[in-house]
Design the sequence.
């Protein structure tokens, strides 16, 4: 249809359909956001962190409104200004002019025609800018660092908080002016203010168009001049020489920095030249200014510094870069807390003298805590022994913690309290293991709602073998301490060092592994429906969770999860509550979006009997002047990441140049309560965020009131990996040595992993303090010489409240080579007796090697310990059992003094390498030789360096080995068939074969 003016119009029906279509489109686009915001607000209300969400939303809205208004106004002003000064003669142009239709369309409603694109551009700019809400808040609440940079003398807070904000403002201004210039230019072209030449016509530009374009271009050049000024400060975080160090180099300071000032001056001159076009009709001046700017930016900003770098700096780099490398060393060690003499204590020429045997044998703190249970291997044993139901589970990588236990002294009735390491895990609900008939909505979300129990196993202890009975399944397995709903109140529970009052796990890592992650709890009539054990049900009693008491809330969550049962199911009542976002790490990250959280979390039992997940939080910065920039993902990746951490979590992929373990967070496993505690009281970044979100982080004084929590905090693994990677270089304090890289170290690869390509992880254990008496829970690692296998240094960091975060580095002398982990591993596993026994065992069982621990014993001794586990090759119910303990002792820091131990127990393995702990320091009894399924105990030959046998001896020993293999196969077949007569004959055959093997000297 056409109206009275001849313009097309829509019928009433078309308008209604169009309105419905627009409404549906808005609903589709905006509806999910409204649902997400509303449900998020309910969740934040549940955890009592609504101030976090309100602050974020308010900040985002204000930024969006301000940026959208400013950008939209600038663009609209440029468009409308061009329209206002349009030439009148253009409206009389020929109807065949291709631009006439656009002029006509805009001329009908000129303000609306220009307001729409301006508003769209403003809205887009606002949407982009609101994502930088944290930059704005950090600027508004910025704290001083109290430290200045070595070049400009400005407080580090300027680079951390102010410079990013100013950069954001400049970027918005640049975009606005560029779009305004283009829009103004197009509008002038459409309405004739700009005419292109050609076809016999002469191009031209009206005076008004010239003035407007010149003003916009001049403003852009002024903004560019301001940008060049701030570019100087960005040089201090320059990664151009990232292969050697981060920060301004000699070239940057002596050539790039002056070039920025020169370019700033040229930009100001160019701006004046553009402004001169307002009064001058000659456009050659601003054109020449634009060319000058481009040529200068290329020659002065790029070519000149590059040429000086190549021909002046590189030939003498070791001397010219010395000052700037020294700046990088100072800034890096400060930013990552690895300052020599403050955060890190070095002991040079460690182990240059042989260890004192008396000191080694009396090293109770270390020798009595030797860990033989590997958290990576033991997950399967936990699952087989403690899973109970198919829908329960444990992480692939268990956690390590410590608890105080009561032990008898020397077998007497006298007892003593000792700190022991424990492999710990919560028996969680694992939704990925539901059977088909369990995998329905009611079961998944209203019946199977929680896990049950805290499981711990003392890390230096396994159960004892049942004599020589090959039919026994005991031997080499963890000794479990179980706290769940079935053990509370029993005699064993009362004497346990770990007592849990509320063992039900509603919040955990595995629970949240499958999406969607939620449970609906609560009962209207008092009847229990949640599974809590065979013939036992339960109802959640805490006040956590979003109430589902009204239909509006149910509708919102039905839309959120796409689940109609929220509206239809009779399992939901007025007392129902919705628990979701149940992963402890995610909960902390959601209430503190400014934190970087550690990839590992772990459960701990508090004094009140509650189970709390402990999460480490970091404050980080990307640009700390002169500090080395590091990739978190690369620095924290190691061999344990082959299983993707505990529950598929790895560190986020971002670069940082500053990191602090500023926050310790807890998440209650039953209530889901999240508590953030200030841990680092000197961190200005944390202080800034505490001002942004007041009241969300508890002060350090509150944490100090919780000794039970402090007793279980540990130094975060990811931060230590980051510091370890830096210390491979930044233990060097001399700039010339740093530049030559002749004294750098390497984080060794894990020798026990396939292909030996992934870095060896650090390990937690309790051992002697590095420089003081007594024991300490610590995180330890070794490093090797640069691209070499020999050991270079032994580093450890304290995790107990006393001495927390203090890093000690024991540096070995370079004159002699000490065995690194790869060399120790090869020596242990290739030893003649060990290799022979391994071959026998590997024929019938699957062999797995645990973590290769490097222990500092007796001050100067270095002891490697590695558990060896066996399990059945086939079957889903196989359990890894400790079979042997391998030891390698480097008493005098030389290969000649090394010994290999290989025995069923730690005590025997230590004795074989010449370590005989006194009665007080003897390791916890770790059981006898575990029996392999279907296989009697193997002989326990002493491990020593045998004389080289003759060829005939080799042949006899090989024949004996074959006979033993055949006998073992007969034992297996006889046991499988149930033929006891054949079984006895096979055992006799095996005994003869073993004696024959021993007679050959094997």
Sequence:
């Amino acid at each position: 249809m056409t109206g009275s003016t001849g313009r097309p119009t829509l019928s009433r029906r078309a308008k209604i359909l169009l309105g419905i279509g627009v409404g549906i489109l808005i609903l589709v686009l905006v509806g999910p956001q409204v649902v997400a915001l509303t449900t998020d607000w309910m969740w934040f209300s549940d955890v009592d962190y609504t101030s976090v969400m309100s602050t974020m939303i308010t900040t985002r809205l204000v930024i969006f409104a301000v940026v959208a208004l400013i950008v939209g106004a600038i663009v609209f002003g440029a468009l409308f200004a061009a329209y206002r000064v349009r030439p009148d003669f253009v409206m009389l142009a020929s109807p065949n002019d291709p631009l006439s239709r656009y002029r006509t369309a805009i001329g009908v409603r000129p303000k609306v025609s220009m307001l729409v694109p301006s508003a769209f551009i403003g809205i887009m700019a606002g949407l982009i800018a609101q994502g930088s809400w944290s930059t704005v808040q950090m600027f508004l609440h910025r704290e001083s660092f109290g430290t200045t940079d070595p070049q400009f003398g400005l407080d580090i807070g300027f680079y951390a908080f102010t410079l990013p904000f100013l950069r954001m403002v400049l970027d918005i201004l640049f975009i606005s002016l560029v779009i305004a210039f283009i829009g103004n230019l197009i509008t002038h072209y459409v309405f004739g203010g700009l005419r292109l030449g050609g076809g016999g016509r002469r191009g031209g530009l009206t005076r008004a168009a010239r003035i407007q374009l010149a003003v916009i271009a001049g403003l852009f050049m002024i903004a560019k001049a301001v940008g060049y000024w701030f570019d100087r400060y960005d040089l201090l975080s320059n990664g151009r020489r990232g292969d050697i160090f981060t920060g301004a180099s000699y070239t940057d300071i002596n050539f790039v920095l002056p070039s920025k000032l020169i370019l700033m001056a040229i930009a100001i001159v160019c701006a004046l030249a553009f402004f001169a076009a307002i009064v001058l009709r000659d456009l050659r001046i601003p054109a020449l200014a634009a060319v000058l700017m481009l040529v200068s930016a290329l020659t002065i900003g790029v070519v000149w510094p590059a040429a000086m770098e190549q021909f002046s700096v590189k030939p003498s780099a070791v001397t010219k870069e010395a000052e700037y490398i020294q700046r990088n060393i100072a800034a890096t060690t400060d930013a990552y807390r690895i300052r020599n003499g403050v955060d890190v204590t070095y002991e040079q020429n460690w182990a240059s003298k042989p260890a004192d045997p008396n000191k080694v044998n009396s090293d109770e703190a270390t020798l009595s805590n030797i860990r033989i249970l590997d958290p990576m291997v033991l997950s399967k044993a936990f699952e087989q022994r403690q899973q109970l139901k198919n829908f329960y589970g444990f992480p692939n990588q268990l956690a390590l913690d410590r608890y105080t236990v009561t032990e008898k002294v020397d077998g007497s009735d006298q007892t003593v309290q000792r700190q022991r390491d424990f492999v710990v895990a919560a028996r969680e609900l694992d939704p990925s293991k539901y059977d088909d008939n369990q995998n329905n909505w009611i079961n998944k979300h209203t019946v199977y709602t929680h896990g049950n129990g805290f499981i711990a196993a003392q890390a230096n202890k396994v159960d004892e073998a049942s004599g020589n009975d090959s039919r026994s399944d005991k031997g080499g397995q963890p000794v479990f301490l179980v706290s769940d709903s079935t053990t509370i109140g029993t005699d064993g529970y009362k004497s346990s060092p770990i007592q849990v009052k509320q063992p039900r796990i509603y919040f955990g890592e595995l629970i949240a592994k499958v999406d969607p992650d939620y449970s609906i709890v609560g009962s209207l009539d008092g009847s229990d429906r949640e599974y809590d054990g065979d013939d036992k049900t339960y109802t959640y009693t805490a006040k956590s969770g979003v109430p589902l008491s009204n239909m509006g809330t149910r509708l919102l969550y039905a839309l959120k999860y796409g689940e109609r049962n929220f509206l239809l199911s009779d399992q939901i009542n007025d007392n129902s509550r919705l628990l979701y976002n149940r992963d402890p790490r995610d909960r902390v990250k959601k209430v503190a979006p400014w934190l970087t959280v550690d990839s590992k979390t772990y459960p701990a039992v508090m004094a009140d009997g509650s189970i709390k997940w402990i999460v480490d939080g970091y404050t980080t910065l990307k640009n700390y002047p002169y500090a080395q920039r590091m990739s978190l993902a690369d620095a924290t990746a190691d061999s344990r990441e082959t299983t993707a951490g505990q529950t598929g979590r790895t560190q986020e992929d971002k670069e940082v140049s500053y990191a602090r373990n500023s926050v310790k967070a807890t998440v209650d496993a039953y209530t889901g309560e999240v508590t953030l505690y200030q841990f680092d009281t000197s961190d200005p970044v944390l202080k800034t965020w505490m001002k942004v979100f007041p009241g969300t982080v508890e002060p350090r004084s509150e944490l100090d009131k919780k000794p039970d929590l402090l007793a279980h905090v540990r130094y975060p693994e990811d931060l230590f990996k980051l510091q370890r990677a830096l210390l491979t270089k930044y233990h060097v304090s001399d700039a010339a040595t740093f530049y030559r890289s002749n004294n750098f170290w390497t984080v060794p690869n894990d020798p026990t992993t396939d292909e030996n390509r992934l870095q060896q992880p650090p390990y937690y254990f309790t051992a002697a303090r590095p420089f003081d008496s007594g024991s300490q829970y610590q995180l330890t690692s070794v490093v090797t010489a640069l691209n070499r296998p020999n050991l270079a240094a032994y580093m450890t960091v304290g995790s107990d409240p006393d001495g927390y975060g203090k890093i000690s580095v024991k540096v070995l002398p370079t004159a002699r080579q000490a065995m690194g982990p790869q060399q120790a591993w090869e020596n242990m596993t290739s030893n003649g007796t060990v290799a022979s026994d391994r071959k026998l065992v590997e024929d019938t069982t699957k062999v797995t090697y645990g973590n290769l621990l490097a222990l500092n014993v007796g001050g100067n001794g270095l002891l490697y310990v590695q558990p060896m586990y066996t399990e059945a090759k086939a079957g889903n119910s196989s359990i890894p059992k400790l079979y042997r303990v391998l030891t390698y002792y480097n008493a005098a820091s030389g290969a000649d003094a090394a010994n290999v131990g290989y025995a069923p127990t730690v005590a025997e393995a230590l004795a074989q390498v010449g370590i005989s702990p006194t009665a007080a320091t003897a390791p916890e009894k770790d059981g006898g030789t575990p029996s392999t399924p279907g296989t009697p105990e193997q002989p326990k030959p002493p491990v020593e360096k045998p004389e080289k046998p003759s060829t005939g001896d080799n042949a006899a020993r090989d024949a004996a080995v074959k006979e033993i293999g055949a006998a073992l196969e007969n034992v297996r077949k006889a046991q499988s068939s149930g033929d006891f007569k054949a079984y006895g004959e096979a055992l006799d055959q095996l005994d003869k074969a073993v004696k024959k093997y021993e007679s050959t000297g094997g």
User: Anything to note?
Assistant: The longest helix spans residues 12-47. The radius of gyration is 36 Å. The chain has a mean pLDDT of 85. The chain has 31 helices and 34 strands.
